[in-house]
Amino acid sequence: MIRAVGAKFITSSANISQAPDFASSEIVFLGRSNVGKSSLINAIANHNGLAKSSSTPGKTRLINFFEIELMEDDDTKDKLKVMFVDLPGFGYAKVAKTMHEEWKKSLDEFLKFRSNIKLFVHLIDARHFDLDIDTNVNSYINSFLRADQKVLNLYTKADKLNQSSRSAVMKFDPKGILVSTLNKNNIDKARDKIINLALGRE
Ligand SMILES: Nc1nc2c(ncn2[C@@H]2O[C@H](COP(=O)(O)OP(=O)(O)OP(=O)(O)O)[C@@H](O)[C@H]2O)c(=O)[nH]1
Ligand SMILES: [Mg+2]
């Protein structure tokens, strides 16, 4: 098991040209507004309050970089360092139209051209796991995915599902992982998977 032993906010950028090159592997968390991106970053980083979460959609408005330090539980290897990137949610309509277009363009450029990105973590609300918007996001990412990049689907707010709904999600996407930041379900499993995929170990 991999443990998160340190986390700190590094910087925010409005777009790709403002974002410094940190020379570490980046893991982006993307998904609809309010799906639980910031909460999940905090749970995976084991650091409450690191990324700002809120019940009001549209909380995250910039590209936020967090440096995460990790250790393998079972040995004395060096610490691992990766960058978590928290993004504004998509599908959030309550911002001015011009601003919305601006965000979309910035996000699109960042996702397509940011060379340090090694893993796209796509968060999907487990209660609404087959929305067109999420299917479209998966095709969108796959349309520019490089050979050194991976995608992982995480299904959030699993605490709100009963057992048969959980089974339906896993049947729909056997490679996905159901997670809950509320009861910490599968957080350790998701962390292991995220780090191993981002570091090209699987
Ligand atoms: N029940 C439950 N609620 C959750 C879970 N994760 C997040 N939430 C709640 O969902 C709301 C949104 O969480 P955020 O982490 O801010 O979501 P976000 O995707 O970062 O939202 P934006 O930044 O607006 O795009 C908050 O009220 C959280 O408390 C979960 O696992 N279970
Ligand atoms: Mg957020």
UniProtKB/TrEMBL annotation:
Its cofactor is Mg(2+). Keywords: Cell cycle, Cell division, GTP-binding, Magnesium, Metal-binding, Nucleotide-binding, Septation. HAMAP family: GTPase_EngB (MF_00321). Necessary for normal cell division and for the maintenance of normal septation. Belongs to the TRAFAC class TrmE-Era-EngA-EngB-Septin-like GTPase superfamily. EngB GTPase family. It comes from Campylobacter californiensis. GO terms for cellular component: cytosol. InterPro entries: G_ENGB_dom, GTP-bd, GTP-bd_ribosome_bio_YsxC, P-loop_NTPase. Residues 23-200 form the EngB-type G domain. GO terms for molecular function: GTP binding; metal ion binding. GO terms for biological process: division septum assembly. Pfam families: MMR_HSR1. The lineage of its organism: Bacteria, Pseudomonadati, Campylobacterota, Epsilonproteobacteria, Campylobacterales. This is Probable GTP-binding protein EngB.
